[in-house]
Structure formats: C-alpha cells, structure tokens
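Exercise 7b. Backbone tokens:
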C-alpha cells in the first residue's frame, strides 16, 4: 500500500516498508550470481540462507535455500516474476549477448498494451521483461 493509500484502520496506517516475493532454490549460489550478474539486482538484506535483492524502490525478490526455508524447491514453477523496463528491446539485446539459452522472442500485445519477452532463471522460474506500448 502506498503512502497515498494509507488506511488508518490498519496497523501503521497500512503502510508497508518492503514488498518481497520469495523463490526457493536447490543451488542458492547459482541463483545469486544470476540475479546479481545478469539481472543487476542489488543484495539488500543478507540473512545467510535467505538473500533479499532490491529490484527497484520497495520491490524485492528473495532467494531462499530450500533446505532451510519454509518451502522446498519444486520442478513446477507456477509463478512469474515480471519487471517493467523503459526499453524492452535493449534488455532483449543485452540478454541475447550474454547467451541466455531460455530467452524468448520479443512480441507485442495490443490488448495488454505491452511489448515483452520471457526467460528463465537457473532453476526455471520464469521472468517476464516488459515495456508499455506507447
């Protein structure tokens, strides 16, 4: 909830400090290298077996060693991390130059008003990179 949408009936007026989505990994160091070196996210909170990366502002993604976390890694990943960027084509070119094998092609959706592509992280979580159509 943003400061503009504060709700005085909730604790702390309904304000949040961070938004964190957690993913669970069999090989945490490999996932860390991907999110740092490929995606360029910054390690914001190091909890040892849980690493929380700042994507932008208050949006964060948490990487958890499945042997210690509340859940276990699973081959089926019914979740997607979506990041909106100013120039989706530049991101696609950047990732293609890195040789990302799971890189999909860029396409546009008039209905959703986006131009986007997908790729997978080292353990199969899908990442959608998108830009708004102008």
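Sequence design result:
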């Amino acid at each position: 909830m943003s400061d503009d949408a504060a709700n005085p009936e909730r604790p702390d007026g309904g304000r949040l400090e961070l938004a964190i989505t957690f993913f669970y990994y069999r090989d945490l160091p490999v996932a860390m290298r991907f999110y740092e070196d490929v995606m360029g996210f910054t390690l914001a909170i190091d909890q040892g077996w849980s690493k929380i990366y700042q994507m932008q502002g208050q949006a964060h993604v948490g990487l958890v060693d499945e042997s210690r976390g509340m859940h276990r890694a699973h081959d089926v990943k019914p979740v997607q991390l979506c990041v909106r960027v100013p120039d989706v084509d530049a991101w696609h070119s950047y990732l293609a130059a890195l040789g990302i094998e799971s890189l999909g092609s860029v396409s546009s959706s008039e209905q959703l008003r986006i131009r986007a592509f997908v790729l997978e992280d080292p353990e199969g979580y899908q990442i959608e990179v998108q830009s708004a159509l102008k």
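Instructor comment: The CA atoms of residues 49 and 65 lie 5 Å apart. The first helix runs from residue 28 to 38.
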